[in-house]
Amino acid sequence: MEKVKVIGGGLAGCEAAWYIANMGFKVELYEMRPARSTPAHHTDKLAELVCSNSLRSNELTNAAGLLKEEMRLLGSLIIKKAEENSVPAGAALAVDREKFSCAVTSAIQEHPLIDVCRKEEGHIPSPPVIIATGPLTSDSLSKAISELLGKEYLYFYDAAAPIITGDSIDWNIAFWGSRYNKGDEDYVNLPMTEEEYLEFYHELVNAEVHSLKEFEKPVFFEGCMPIEVMAKRGPKTLLFGPLKPVGIIDPRTGKQPYAVVQLRKENKEGTLFNMVGFQTSLKWPEQKRVFSKIPGLKDPEFVRYGFIHRNTFIMSPKFLQPWLELKATFGLFFAGQITGVEGYIESAASGIVAGVNMVRRLEGKDPIAFPLETVIGSLCHYITSADPKNFQPMKANFGILPPLEEKVKSKKERNQRLAQRSIKILREFIAANELMV
Ligand code: FAD
To answer: What is the interface pTM, i.e. ipTM, of the complex?
Structure first.
C-alpha cells in the first residue's frame, strides 16, 4: 500500500497523519526533534505548544470557538486531546501543555498505521506528501521549498499591520479615495488635524511594546519597520511615510489634511480593512488604546492585531488550491502555519483539510474545498485567494465568512447565526462527502 509522508510532527502534521491513518492508509511522519530543534521548541514531543497554553475561546460566538466546534465535527485529534488535558480558563480552552503534547505523541506513536521517523527531511519527497514544518521550518527544507517555488515566494518574517472591521469605522469621518485621485477605490482615508496628529504621535512613541525573542531580532528592513520605531526618528517622520497627506483632499473641507491614515480593503467583500504601514510590536491592549486616538477609529474592532515575528510561509494565493494542494503537483500538499494560516488551532485545522484531500487523492476521487460558510473553509479560501501583493497570514475571524443574507445589528446575535449556519452546512458537507469522523 502507498505510504504518505507527512513532514513535521507539529499541530498540522499530527492532525493530517491522524486523519489519513484512520482512513486506513499508512503514514510516515517525519519529525526532526530531538536531534535538531527549532529556536522555540523545548521538548521532543509531537504537537508541542511553543508559547501560550491557550487554544483561545470555546464560545460559538467567537470565531476561534466556532473553528473548534467544526474541528470536533471533523474528529480532530488536537481538540480531543486538548479537552482531555484542559485546565480551568473560563470561556477559553487552555491545556496542561506537557500532558497535552504527551497525549498527542502517544496517540500518534501507538497508531498501527503511523510510523514516526525522528529525522530532518531536507528535500521535498515525491508525492504523496504533506509539508507541515511550521513557522520555524529547518534551513535545509526551506532551501528546497524556495528552489521549488522561487525564493521570492517564501517569506521568513512576518510584519503585519492590524486588520479592523469596516463596521467599526466611523463613516462620518472616513472617506474613500486614492492619492492624487488615481481612481483606486480600494482606499479609505482618515484625516487628522495637527493637534490630533501630535496627540496620537505622543501616545505612539510612549506605548508599551512586545520584547522580541533573540531569533526574532534582525527583522527591521526599511519596508517593514514597526510604525513606533519609525516614529521615534522624529515627530515629522510619519508625515513622509505611512501618514503622508500629500495628494489627498478631504471632500468635507476641500483641503489637504495635516496627516492621513489610509486603510486598504483586505478582502474583496470590503468587510475588512488593513491599516496601511501600521506593522507594529505594540502590545495588543496598547494597539487598541493608541490606534483609537485616530479620528474615525474611536472603537476599532480588530480581527488581527499587528505583529512582527519570525515566520516561514509560502505565497499560498499563487501556489495552493483551496484544498491546500500545490497547483502544479497532484499529491503535494502544504498544511499548518507554513500556508499562511496563523495560530495553533488554525494550523491544526488546515492539517485536517490536507488530510481529507490526501485521502481523496489516494482513493482516486477529486479533491474538495471546504464550504466558505465555515471558518475552516473560509480560512483556506482566504489564504489561497488573497491579493498576492499584500499577502499576510490570517487567524480565524468572522470577517472572512460571507455575510448573512439578513442584516443583524447585534454582534452577538450575528455571530450566533453565522455559527449556526456554519455547523449546519459542515454537517451536510461531512455527510455528502462521506468524511470519516
Ligand atoms: P509546528 O507546530 O511548529 O510544527 C512543525 C514541526 O515541524 C516542528 O515540530 C518542527 O520541529 C518540525 N520540522 C521543521 N522542519 C523540519 C524538517 N525539515 N524535517 C522534519 N521536521 C521538521 N500560535 C498561537 O495560537 N498561540 C501562541 O501563543 C503562539 N505562539 C507562537 C510563538 C512562537 C515563537 C512562534 C514561532 C509561533 C507561535 N504561534 C502561536 C504560531 C503557530 O500557531 C504555532 O507556531 C503552531 O505550532 C504552528 O503549527 P504547525 O503545525 O504549522 O507548526
So the answer is: 0.99
